[in-house]
Write a structure and sequence with these properties.
By secondary structure, this protein is mostly helical. The protein folds into two domains: 149 residues, no CATH class; 188 residues, Intergrase catalytic core (hpI Integrase, Chain A, Orthogonal Bundle). Helix content is 52%, strand content 3%. Helix 1 runs antiparallel to helix 2, helix 7 runs antiparallel to helix 9 and helix 7 crosses helix 11.
């Protein structure tokens, strides 16, 4: 049985959102039972499909009012007027919690699962090629290229599933081509001043009253958050690598951890900073009150392994507390780690090993961020100085 809630949105009646939600639910069941996707992947698919349902509902509603589904009328947009991306994302997360969402119960052998809708599907057939051009154009205007491509991959898989099950006759995403111009590849980093503000926020003593949890649990979670942020900054770990850390790969005596990165590539990282060593040690000491059986190092308040989304949320929480208005992700800590090492004169090949890049070409993006180092080189090493002697 899955630990996470999987069903997208539950609505009753013969409506566009009810039909589309049911089909999305069937696809998620298929992804879980047959494709065996991880819970993190399912969570990502779930958010993508929620966005699709909401936009499609608006599209169909406006098309019906206009008298034709094919009119070139805007569909209300992905965001409400005056609503920011972050507000929208928070709204979607709230919708997930407030609507009736069920857990998938194991039905035994996946072959016995019946991935068939309970009602005739009419609305899904209105999501034609014209719809997808409009939807992807709006996404491309608001999201990063990588995000848009990931969402399109999810939607393409969804519609191939519907086509293979005979739910739709024609797949509007078959051979669908999306031309996207990549944005600037310069990674977003944090300054040392911003990092200090973030650590000041997370190390700040707790308030007396914490709603919903005991003061003891609140202190444990605070110690966990400190350890998470210290690790992100000290090692440049990817968020999924951090969430996958367990006691079987952590060597306390050597203060090292074995990381299984992209493509199954393993690397060893050493914890050499007293801040991260002390923070991790203190959290592990208090962690015994959460769960003594789990091998995962980082747990949530219910004793389950910490999810990637939870790490993103806590990063956002402390950045907000630090007064940082930018949308900072855990990956920004990784970029900051690499950029600061480069500014200190560390060779690129060592940074490549620390980050777990298979190609040094990937690591070279950090060459564009080291403005301080560029200025220093030109100031101290330019040949013009030799003429002044």
């Amino acid at each position: 049985m899955m630990n996470e809630k999987v069903i997208v949105i539950e609505k009753s009646g013969q409506s566009a959102s009810a039909e589309l939600s049911e089909l999305c639910n069937l696809y998620l069941e298929h992804c879980y039972y047959e494709k065996r996707l991880s819970e993190n992947s399912l969570q990502s698919y779930r958010y993508d499909l929620i966005g699709l349902v909401r936009y499609a509902e608006s599209y169909i509603s406006r098309s019906e009012k206009a008298g034709s589904c094919g009119k070139t009328e805007t569909c209300g947009g992905i965001y409400k007027t005056g609503e920011t991306k972050q507000e929208k994302k928070n709204d979607e997360a709230s919708t997930l919690n407030e609507t009736l969402i069920e857990k998938l119960e194991c039905k035994g052998n996946a072959k016995n699962a019946q991935y068939r809708p309970k009602q005739n599907c009419v609305y899904i057939k209105r999501l034609d090629r014209d719809f997808w051009h409009k939807y992807m154009a709006e996404l491309a205007a608001l999201k990063k290229v990588k995000t848009v491509k990931r969402k399109l991959a999810c939607f393409t898989g969804f519609f191939y599933f519907l086509e293979n099950r005979g739910i739709i006759e024609e797949n509007p995403l078959d051979k669908f081509k999306l031309k996207l111009k990549p944005a600037s590849s310069v990674p977003e980093t944090l300054s040392l001043k911003e990092m200090k503000c973030i650590f000041d926020a997370v190390y700040r003593p707790l308030r007396d009253n914490i709603t919903g949890i005991t003061k003891e649990m609140a202190e444990i979670l605070r110690c966990r958050d400190i350890a998470v942020l210290e690790l992100l900054f000290a090692t440049g770990l990817r968020v999924n690598e951090l969430c996958s850390m367990n006691f079987s790969t952590y060597d306390k005596d050597e203060q090292s951890v074995r990381i299984l990165g992209k493509g199954g590539k393993e690397r060893k990282l050493y914890l050499c900073n007293n801040g991260v060593i002390n923070a991790l040690g203190k959290y592990i000491e208090k962690r015994v009150h959460m769960d003594k059986e789990s091998d995962a190092i980082f747990l949530n308040r219910w004793g389950k392994p910490l999810s990637c989304q939870a790490v993103r949320d806590l990063v956002r929480k402390y950045c907000k507390a630090a007064g940082i208005k930018r949308n900072i992700t855990p990956h920004a800590f990784r970029h900051t780690f690499a950029s600061l090492l480069l500014e200190e004169g560390v060779e690129l090949r060592y940074i490549q090993e620390f980050l777990g890049h298979s190609s040094i070409t990937t690591t070279q993006i950090y060459l564009h961020t080291s403005e301080k180092r560029k200025r220093e080189i030109l100031t101290k090493m330019h040949p013009r100085k030799k003429l002044e002697k």
